[in-house]
């Protein structure tokens, strides 16, 4: 073989190694996005598990808020979380906590305080999971849009991920929890 042929094979080998390395980076970034989403999913399920207990606790005191309680229960009953419905659930949970403020006996209830504290913990964990996920999405999407990585991403069908934007029930105002 001639020196030119060796140089050509060397360039082809380098190109193939770069292609494999780039593809593996894209796969790792995509898997980090999936991992981040699973963390959000766990926290959403935890929140959904708390909702019926909160509705029951508030419902015992606030019989005239039946419409609100039914909306929260309906939103919670969804098996597959939908981002629009999750945002609506966050809004309704905020309203539910505001209704609870009007009932001093409810606010003093150890059961309600425990549920409220758990909701705050779940919302904080959800916020951390959202930050991790959105960071993974940012890294992944940056890889997809960066040259020359975008050439590999397009060739192998990598698609951009969406950021997770969901208002948390405790974001607008932190519930008052007395220890």
Automatic annotation (TrEMBL):
Keywords: Membrane, Transmembrane, Transmembrane helix
Main location group: membrane
Record-level GO cellular component terms: membrane
Topology relative to the membrane: Single-pass membrane protein
Pfam families found in the cross-reference section: LemA
Compartment annotation: Membrane
InterPro entries (UniProt xref): LemA-like_dom_sf, MamQ_LemA
Segments passing through the bilayer: 6-24
The keyword Membrane belongs to this UniProt entry's keyword annotation: yes
Xref: PANTHER family: MEMBRANE PROTEIN (PTHR34478:SF2), PROTEIN LEMA (PTHR34478)
Annotated family: Belongs to the LemA family.
The protein, known as: LemA family protein
Taxonomic source organism: Oceanithermus profundus (strain DSM 14977 / NBRC 100410 / VKM B-2274 / 506)
Taxonomic classification: Bacteria, Thermotogati, Deinococcota, Deinococci, Thermales
